[in-house]
């Protein structure tokens, strides 16, 4: 086969991975109900505000869902203003999503959930060829690129991120682009060549854009900076004269990149300063990570493993979940020697040594930074899997580099690449015993993990209104009032999850419930008093559901409100909601 034919086959194979990844990401795209964070994206992308939802009085379903109604007159200025005053996120993704949503008609008067998720899914698909390009550049190997594209196509973690209308898939693309710039820069240093000016401007632009997509991109920049400093330090230590070092202009170029990136990031400094004191992010700082170090460490490992594999662990019986978890753990221990030996051999091979050092070093530093933030600063980043997008594409890359050795071990043994030492030959023959079958098995487990996510047996939504709303509606003979305490806009979004599900399941077939957001005051019992006042104003009989409203629930259970008594039926717990039914006569 000549080079042209082989190149044609390479692109055809890459297209196949893109097709597989696209199909998986669009399966059941709008089947799962949106959770509260998705509503934040939808509302702000439309240029709307949560402040339009009234507090301290009973409101109808249409009033609760009003911020989800598209308005043709909404502008970029509305998106930016509402996002900056009501959220903790930078605006780029929301502005792009604003344009995207204008291309689609509304769904029964509300924004189309499918359209919102489709934008993120398309960006997730784009990460497949981007991973191919990154690995081709980093390891100078199309084989590594093909395996990376294959792994990215079926990554359960990647599918989970791509099926939510959030900014993480865009951030992943920008991280891949920034890593590519890092690789080119380190290669210039190693070859003692000046860093081209186009790379300086491109890298600064990518980094500035990354910060404007998600503030956690700064962790990517910190990890890249540490890796780059290590490369520069190693080179300076190995210098035997000025002619052996990279040109001075290269170091000045790196300083220019750093200065330009810092300048681009300073734009968001006023908003960054407000985040630690923002009630919307208080949940990250709750608890003591050292007090539950095993639990937080287990979560870290779970998120990293799910970047490659996942089997049904949610929505199934406990025995099945335990068996699936055990299979994944056993497979992990079977795979680790393959990865370690593959990395060792890649480090011994001159074409890939630099790539393994840079990309692998980036992953290790990023994980170390996550650990420092969690255990030293008290912000438990292990709680939310979505934050680990920072090192996700690099993790796929280094795993693919190791698997490429396993796939190509027969050729390496046959041609005896390098002057193999006995130890190197032993590692290579170990990989040869695993062969291509191991790579196929690893990919297949990832494929089953992708199906696990799309069919909702893994990475389920934090809130499950699809389970709670049928319970509320089942056997309901009286009008329903759903009440919660209002601390932040998060509670508005939580009620929206229930309202959306009522509209989605029943439409106009049943009488829609009323909703109450009782404003909480820490110095008084204001929210409970508001609830009782609202109950008094509504006709009886009334079915009252208190949801995530602990003070009212305890007060009602004590019998302090004579007309409302707790329902005696025991009901299953539902993720995301602490709900209790009371009958008011």
Structure report:
- The protein is mainly alpha-helical.
- Helices cover 63% and strands 5% of the residues.
- The chain has 24 helices and 5 strands.
- It has helices at residues 3-26, 36-45, 61-64, 76-86, 92-101, 113-139, 142-154, 156-162, 168-190, 197-213, 217-237, 248-266, 269-274, 282-285, 293-306, 318-348, 350-375, 392-407, 409-415, 422-454, 465-473, 489-506, 526-537, 550-557, and strands spanning 480-486, 514-519, 542-547, 564-566, 579-584.
- Strands 2-1-3-5-4 form a 5-stranded mixed beta sheet, with helices on both faces.
- Helix 22 links the parallel strand 1 and strand 2 (514-519).
- The model is unreliable at 1-5 (pLDDT under 50).
Query: With helices defined by DSSP (H or I, 4 residues minimum), what is the helix count?
Result: 24
Helix and strand element order = HHHHHHHHHHHHHHHHHHHHHEHEHEHEE
How would you characterize the largest beta sheet?
A: 5 strands, mixed
Structural class: mainly alpha
Share in β-strands: under 5%
Mean pLDDT: 88
Provide the spatial order of strands within the biggest beta sheet: 2-1-3-5-4
* Bulk shape: elongated
Radius of gyration: 27 Å
| Low-pLDDT residue intervals, each spanning 5 or more residues | 1-5
Transmembrane segments: 7-27, 114-136, 143-162, 168-186, 198-231, 251-272, 293-313, 319-343, 355-377, 389-407, 437-459
Keywords: Membrane, Transmembrane, Transmembrane helix
């Amino acid at each position: 086969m000549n080079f042209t034919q082989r190149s044609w086959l390479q692109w055809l194979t890459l297209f196949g991975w893109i097709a597989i990844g696209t199909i998986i990401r669009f399966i059941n795209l709008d089947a799962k109900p949106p959770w509260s964070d998705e509503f934040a994206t939808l509302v702000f992308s439309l240029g709307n505000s949560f402040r339009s939802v009234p507090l301290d009085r009973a409101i109808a379903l249409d009033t609760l869902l009003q911020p989800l109604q598209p308005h043709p007159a909404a502008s970029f200025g509305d998106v930016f203003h509402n996002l900056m005053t009501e959220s903790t996120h930078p605006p780029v993704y929301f502005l792009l999503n604003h344009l995207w949503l204008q291309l689609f008609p509304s769904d029964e008067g509300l924004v189309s959930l499918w359209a919102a998720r489709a934008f993120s899914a398309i960006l997730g698909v784009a990460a497949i060829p981007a991973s191919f390009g990154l690995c081709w550049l980093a390891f100078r190997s199309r084989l590594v690129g093909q395996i990376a594209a294959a792994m990215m196509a079926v990554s359960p973690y990647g599918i989970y991120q791509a099926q939510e209308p959030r900014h993480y898939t865009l951030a992943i693309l920008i991280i891949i682009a920034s890593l590519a710039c890092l690789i080119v820069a380190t290669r210039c240093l190693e070859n003692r060549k000046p860093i081209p000016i186009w790379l300086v401007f491109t890298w600064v632009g990518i980094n500035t854009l990354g910060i404007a997509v998600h503030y956690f991109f700064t962790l990517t920049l910190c990890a890249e900076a540490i890796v780059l400093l290590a490369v520069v330090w190693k080179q300076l230590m190995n210098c035997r004269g000025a002619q052996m070092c990279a040109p001075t202009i290269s170091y000045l170029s790196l300083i220019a990149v750093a200065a330009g990136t810092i300048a681009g990031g300073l734009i968001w400094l006023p908003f960054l300063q407000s985040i630690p004191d923002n009630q919307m992010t208080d949940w990250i700082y709750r608890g003591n990570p050292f007090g539950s170090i095993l639990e937080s460490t287990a979560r870290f490992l779970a998120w990293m493993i799910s970047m490659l594999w996942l089997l049904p662990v949610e929505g199934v019986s406990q025995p099945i979940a335990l068996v699936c978890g055990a299979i994944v753990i056993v497979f992990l221990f079977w795979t680790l020697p393959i990865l370690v030996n593959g990395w060792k051999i890649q480090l011994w091979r001159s074409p890939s040594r630099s790539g393994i050092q840079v990309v692998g070093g980036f992953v290790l530093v990023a994980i170390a930074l996550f650990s420092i933030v969690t255990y030293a600063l008290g912000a438990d980043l292990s709680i939310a899997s979505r934050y680990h997008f920072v090192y996700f594409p690099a993790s796929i890359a280094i795993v693919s580099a190791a698997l490429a050795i396993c796939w190509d071990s027969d050729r390496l043994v046959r041609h005896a690449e390098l002057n193999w030492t006995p130890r190197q030959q032993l590692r290579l023959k170990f990989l040869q015993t695993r062969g291509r079958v191991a790579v196929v098995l690893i990919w297949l487990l990832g494929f089953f993990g992708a199906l696990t996510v799309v069919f909702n047996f893994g990475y389920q939504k934090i809130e499950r209104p699809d389970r709670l709303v049928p319970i509320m509606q089942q056997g309901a003979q009286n009008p329903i009032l759903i009440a919660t305490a209002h601390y932040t806009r998060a509670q508005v979004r939580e009620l929206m999850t229930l309202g959306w599900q009522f509209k989605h399941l029943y439409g106009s077939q049943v009488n829609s419930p009323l909703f109450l957001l009782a404003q909480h005051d820490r110095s008084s019992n204001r929210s409970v008093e508001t609830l009782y006042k609202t109950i008094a104003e509504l006709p009886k009989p009334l079915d009252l559901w208190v949801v995530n409203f602990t003070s009212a629930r305890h007060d009602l259970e004590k019998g302090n409100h004579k007309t409302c008594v707790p329902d005696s039926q025991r009901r299953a717990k539902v993720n995301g909601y602490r709900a209790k039914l009371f009958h008011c006569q």
